[in-house]
Amino acid sequence: MWLSIRKRRDQMAADSYLRPIGLLERFHTTRNFLGFDSCVVASGKYATQDSLPLTKDVLFPALREVIKAHPSLCVRLKNESCSNAAFTRLHNIDLSHIVEFRDDDSLETALESQLAQGFDMDADLPLWRIQVLGDNTVILGIHHVIGDGLSTIAFHASLLRALRNVPIGDASPLVQIPDTITLLPPVEAATNVRPSLSTIFDEVYKLFAPKYLTSDRSAWSGNPVPSVSGGLRTHVRLLAIPAPDVTAFCTICRTHRTTLTSAFYALIVALLSRMLADDSHYKSISSTVAISLRGTAGMSGDAICDYVSAHRTYPPANANFNWTTAARYATKLRKQKRKARESIGMLRFLFGNYVPYMRGHLGKKRASGFVLSNLGRFDARTVEGTWNIVNAVFAQCDVMVGAAFKMNVATLWLVTQLAPLSLPLSAQKKFAVKVSGALYTNGSEAARNEFIWLQEPACVGFPNVTQDVQTVLAYIFRKAAVYAVRAGSIA
Question: Molecular function (GO) terms listed (predicted)?
Fold first, then answer.
């Protein structure tokens, strides 16, 4: 009898096995089980003309369709800290265990709470969760091992379609997972990530060259990584650039042959340079911009997957914004779409030693002062008489060894179809940029003086800055963007 039961259990485990995790996926899962990261989050505020609430009767049938459409939402990780870590199929998902309805949280508070939570890898639960606020804002928290920033947009787009097409009815929380699901391949199986000899040489040089000969010797990157890992406390500030300003900003970017991403990049570098002007030690700004690999891998924007890399640069500290700099960086980013794959291929040279590699960052200088991640345009076309998305925000964690702060940008493009709705649409086309600037602190008392504290902005590493974090972020994005729109440059 015991052998028979064991045999059935082994067969069930074999039936659930999907595939081993890939290079980038192991990178992200290692950060999580070490307590260096938690999740990627994105919120969408849903609305109807008659102000219908998002109850279980409405949401659960729609979520059931979303789950069936995306295999990544149907899996869990087995043996996450071992060399044989793999994705396995869940047999069912109980939505009552991963969907929470709360009326009392503000969006900023809710995002901070989500970013402070990892996932229970021992539980028979998927690698994502949902929080629904009283104003119909749906917050997705997703493990980076199954989804990147664009995956959060794909989720909300899929949920919007389901809300529009699935009838209200069966509010049962149980979702059965078919045994025929197939996961998308890891990114290294979808595109060539093999590093060039020049990339290998550059990385080896960074490891062994004397510090005074490296690019980051005089680059600002915030305060050092805490020497001891701790909690995942995160500060989030949400800023909105008004629709007319964004429309004008996009127009002037095109005029100067640049992009929204490269313009924001140049603005951040210029403004950080101003804040650092009194410290002669800093000659450059350590900067990182996220790059999606979906195009080079032939992957759809509707997929939920982990296909992302980044481009790191050390622009000279220069307090004067100019469009030539922004245009040059736009050109550089376009060329990096293929080159950025090589950083994933470099992970092979860790030979599985991800844990000591990541722990080796503790107590060291940060690799980046800021990370800019722009999801691009979320095309949420407005349809009369049904569900629509009227607001979108995304943010990410990586609080321990990541950049001193992150600027996460989501652009919601709303186009009214048929007659205008009684929704907050000022015109047939409306652009709204929600900038989620997250400044992070380890939650422990010991870390407060090492890293960033909301009421002590000097800890961020900006000398002679008296504004609080929200004012700094507002200055960077609202003021700088408006100046650029109206004057064509930063005075």
Answer: N-acetyltransferase activity
